[in-house]
């Protein structure tokens, strides 16, 4: 099928993930992309979403819209993270079904996997054990979205499938220290420490957890690859509910901090506050399935952090 000519609704186009997907699709010649800001369309409102779909009739729906944040935000705003994400995905997936969308790509997160699952995380580990408490509401919402896509396929044959990216970073990231993820938070912390001549930077936890990071433009390429090459049936025939997207490589938070410290040029010391939570000990994705299908990441971590820091310097005031 020639997806290039289809009308695509990209939900969440203003966010880090959505804006990267928009750049990738337009660069590749997709010129029939519909977008709506939060002010124009509240995705938590079923009536608004249904009216929008009835008027626009998108043939492809890419769900990059979500309420997101790091450990602090997830653990502080538990109700909003569960409610908002449940409503957004349920409204969009159901409206896609009602209006006969030809394809839906739902984006989740690696936090859907159990806290102590074997490493690397295989797709079949979903729902095999307990979740990490600090981001449990967000994870439960994303699992519901995955199962919605799977259920519409199994009941109606809908071409709805889910991608699970690892930790993302890049252009248009959130650098708010109260709500951001670890990598952009560290960029801002080291930058501000450098510009204020601070002697040290304090980081939550012990620095020992290991994390995997994917440059958001690489995820955007994975979304386009999935749109053009992967159908829901091929995924569910494998008896898995979602497809992992990542690098297959990880490092400790202390190694990440050292890398960012070097790129930013901060010359002080790093203090680890072990009274603060570490989160999940390790979250490395098994990306062998999507690699075997033909997609692989291109941007190494140091290169991606340099690009992100340059963007931060130019855009974040």
Name the beta content range. 5-15%
* CATH class annotation of one domain: Alpha Beta
Main sheet: strand order: 2-1-3-4-5-10
Low-confidence stretches: none
Number of helices: 11
Derived structural class: alpha/beta
* Biggest pleated sheet: 6 strands, parallel
Number of strands: 13
Features:
single chain; 317 residues; alpha/beta; Rossmann fold; six-stranded parallel beta sheet; three-stranded mixed beta sheet; 13 strands; globular
Task: Write up what this structure looks like.
43% of the residues lie in helices and 15% in strands. It is an alpha/beta fold and 317 residues long. It has a domain at 3-169 and 213-249 and 285-299: Rossmann fold (3-Layer(aba) Sandwich), CATH 3.40.50. It has a 6-stranded parallel β-sheet with strand order 2-1-3-4-5-10, sandwiched between helices. Strands 11-8-13 form a 3-stranded mixed β-sheet. Helix 1 (16-27) links the parallel strand 1 and strand 2 (33-34). Helix 2 (46-56) runs parallel beside helix 4 and helix 9 (253-264) crosses helix 11. The model has no long low-confidence stretch (mean pLDDT 94).
